[in-house]
C-alpha cells in the first residue's frame, strides 16, 4: 500500500540508534508521506535536527516554544494532525514515561494528546531491554493499544550481542505499510459489538448477574475499529475504558441491550454478540430494598428475550453474525447446535474447563466453528490476540459475501 499523503509523526529519543532515523525519514518521504520529526532534547546529541529537517523537508520540533518566531509548537495539533505517531528509537526512559503518563518534553506531550494510532520501536542495551521494569512498561503500553515494533537481535553499542537493536529502517517502513493496509481493510463497514454482563434488578440494590468483565468484547470492538470499521459498542456494566474511536452505549438489563441492539442491527455489516446476557430476570422488581426476614427468600424468575436468536431472524446475506458460547459440558455439541438454531455465521466457543479461559482474565482459549461446520481450535492467547483472530476471520467473510 502506498504511503502517499499519509501524515506520519516520528518521535526521536536520545539513543545511539537515532542515526537510523535519517534513512527511515528518507524512505518515507520517497513514498510521498508527510513526515514531521519531533525530537527529545537528548536526541539532538545523537543526530542533528538539521539532518532530519533536510530529509523531511520540514522544520524539526523539539521545544514547546519556537524562540526564533515566538510561536507555540502546539502538541495537541500535532497529535490530531497525524495519521500515525511512531516513536523510534524508544529508549527505556521514554517508555517508562509513556507508560506512566509523565510529560516533560514536547514528544511526550504529543504522545499524551495523540488521537491517532501509536507505534513504538524500542532500542537499548540487552540488560536494559530484559529488565522486568522495561518489559512491564512495554506490556502496559501494548495494553493501551500501542503497537510494538520489536527490537532485533545482534551486536549492540555496548559490545554485547543480543536483543535490543532498533529494527532496521526498511523493516519499520514495511510495518508502517502493513499498518495502513490493515487499518483500511474494513473501511466503510459498520460493526455492532456487545460486551460485558447484564444486571437484572431484584430491588434497588440487588441484581442477578455474572462474572463477565467485558474484556473480550472490548478487545473485539478495538480490533474492528483498528481495521477501519465504524464500531458501536453496546456494553453492560463494566469498569473498562471505552476503546479509542468506538461509539459506546451503556445498558444494564437484557431488555435494554436488546432494544439498543435492535436500533443499530439493520445498518450493521458486522455483528459480534460477545456479551454474557442473563438468561432469567425477576418477574417483579421490588420498589424498596427487600428486608431480611425468615430463613429463605423465593424469587420468581422468567426467561429474558434471546437477543442473539431474535437478531438472527433478521440477519441478511450481507451481514456477518458472530455469537459466543461459554460451556461447562458437551461444549462442542452445544455450540454447534447454538450456531444452527440462531442463524450464525460463526460461533466462538470457550470452555470453563480450559485453564486460562473464561471470565475476568486477560487470556482466552477458543474454538471457532463456522456455518459450514469447520472447526478451528486456537491455542491459549491474550484476549487482544483472540480479538485479532476473530476480526481477521470477519474480514475474510465480508470479502467473500461482497465479492
Low-confidence stretches: none
- Give the rounded overall mean pLDDT: 91
- N- to C-terminal distance: 21 Å
The largest sheet has its strands arranged as 14-13-10-15-18-19-21-22
| Major sheet | 8 strands, mixed
Extended strand count: 23
Count of separate structural domains = 2
The CATH topology of the largest domain is given as Rossmann fold
CATH architecture of the largest domain: 3-Layer(aba) Sandwich
What is the 3D form?
Answer: elongated
Indicate the structural class: alpha/beta
Helix content: 25-40%
Cα-atom radius of gyration: 25 Å
β-strand percent reads 15-25%
CATH superfamily of the largest domain: CoaB-like
Using the coordinates above, name the CATH class of the largest domain. Alpha Beta
Number of discrete helical segments: 13
Describe this structure in words.
- By secondary structure, the chain is of the alpha/beta class.
- The protein has two domains: 7-183, Flavin prenyltransferase-like (Rossmann fold); 190-401, 3-Layer(aba) Sandwich (Rossmann fold).
- It contains 13 helices and 23 strands.
- Strands 14-13-10-15-18-19-21-22 form an eight-stranded mixed β-sheet, sandwiched between helices.
- It starts with 6 loop residues before the first strand and ends with a helix.
Amino acid at each position: 500500500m502506498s504511503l502517499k499523503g499519509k501524515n506520519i509523526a516520528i518521535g526521536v529519543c536520545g539513543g545511539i540508534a537515532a542515526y537510523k532515523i535519517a534513512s527511515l525519514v528518507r524512505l518515507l518521504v520517497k513514498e510521498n508521506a508527510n513526515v514531521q520529526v519531533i525530537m527529545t532534547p537528548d536526541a539532538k546529541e545523537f543526530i542533528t535536527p538539521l539532518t532530519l529537517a533536510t530529509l523531511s523537508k520540514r522544520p524539526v520540533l523539539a521545544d514547546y516554544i519556537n524562540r526564533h518566531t515566538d510561536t507555540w509548537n502546539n502538541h495537541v495539533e500535532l497529535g490530531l494532525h497525524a495519521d500515525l505517531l511512531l516513536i523510534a528509537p524508544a529508549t527505556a526512559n521514554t517508555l517508562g514515561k509513556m507508560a506512566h503518563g509523565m510529560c516533560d518534553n514536547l514528544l511526550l506531550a504529543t504522545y499524551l494528546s495523540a488521537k491517532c494510532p501509536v507505534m513504538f520501536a524500542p532500542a537499548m542495551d540487552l540488560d536494559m531491554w530484559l529488565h522486568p521494569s522495561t518489559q512491564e512498561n512495554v506490556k502496559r503500553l501494548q495494553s493501551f493499544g500501542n503497537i510494538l515494533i520489536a527490537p532485533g537481535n545482534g551486536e549492540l553499542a555496548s559490545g554485547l550481542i543480543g536483543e535490543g537493536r532498533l529494527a532496521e529502517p526498511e523493516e519499520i517502513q514495511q510495518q508502517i505499510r502493513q499498518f495502513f493496509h490493515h487499518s483500511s481493510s474494513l473501511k466503510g463497514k459498520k460493526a455492532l459489538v456487545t460486551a460485558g454482563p447484564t444486571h437484572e434488578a431484584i430491588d434497588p440494590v440487588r441484581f442477578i448477574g455474572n462474572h463477565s468483565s467485558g474484556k473480550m468484547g472490548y478487545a473485539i470492538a478495538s480490533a474492528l475499529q483498528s481495521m477501519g470499521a465504524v464500531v458501536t459498542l453496546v456494553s453492560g456494566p463494566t469498569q473498562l475504558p471505552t476503546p479509542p474511536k468506538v461509539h459506546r452505549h451503556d445498558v444494564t438489563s437484557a431488555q435494554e441491550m436488546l432494544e439498543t441492539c435492535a436500533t443499530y442491527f439493520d445498518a450493521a455489516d458486522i455483528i459480534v454478540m460477545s456479551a454474557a446476557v442473563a438468561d432469567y430476570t425477576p418477574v417483579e422488581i421490588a420498589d424498596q430494598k427487600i428486608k431480611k426476614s425468615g430463613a429463605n427468600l423465593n424469587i420468581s424468575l422468567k426467561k429474558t428475550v434471546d437477543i442473539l436468536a431474535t437478531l438472527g431472524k433478521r440477519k441478511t446475506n450481507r451481514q456477518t453474525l458472530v455469537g459466543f458460547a461459554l460451556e461447562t459440558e458437551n461444549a462442542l455439541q452445544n455450540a454447534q447446535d447454538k450456531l444452527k438454531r440462531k442463524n450464525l455465521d460463526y460461533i466462538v466457543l470457550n470452555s470453563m474447563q480450559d485453564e486460562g479461559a473464561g471470565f475476568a482474565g486477560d487470556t482466552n482459549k477458543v474454538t471457532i466453528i463456522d456455518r459450514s461446520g469447520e472447526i478451528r481450535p486456537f491455542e491459549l492467547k491474550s484476549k487482544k490476540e483472540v480479538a485479532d483472530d476473530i476480526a481477521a476471520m470477519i474480514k475474510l467473510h465480508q470479502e467473500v459475501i461482497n465479492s
